[in-house]
Amino acid sequence: MYIIRMQNMQFHSHIGVMAEEKEVGQNLQVDLETAVNATPIDDHLDSTVSYGTFYPVVEKIISENRVNLIETLAQKIIVAIKNLDSRIETVTIRIRKLNLPVDGVFNNVEIEMKQ
After folding, report:
1. Which of 6, 23, 31, 73 has the greatest number of CB atoms lying within 10 Å of its CB?
2. CA 72, CA 87: separation in Å to the nearest integer?
């Protein structure tokens, strides 16, 4: 078993509860971690899980969904990534909203989900 991590993927989305979030959109950062139950053999890609398939899946889900909650987005991404390959045992995702229409001083809001 080993871990694949993709960190700080950047996207623009139109998710959120507030009207401003849906209209103007905002920037997201996404970290994805997968636990893979595979043993690479003889340097052949098909003996393991290709992380090259992850980014397009995340990008498509974010661009096609205008959900209210980042938790909903996280769940959709987890299911899609797990469906790519049966050797993916667990998926952990962190989604950060960077520009929130919330009064206060802070860098971002982040959620983390694992399945």
Report:
1. 73
2. 24
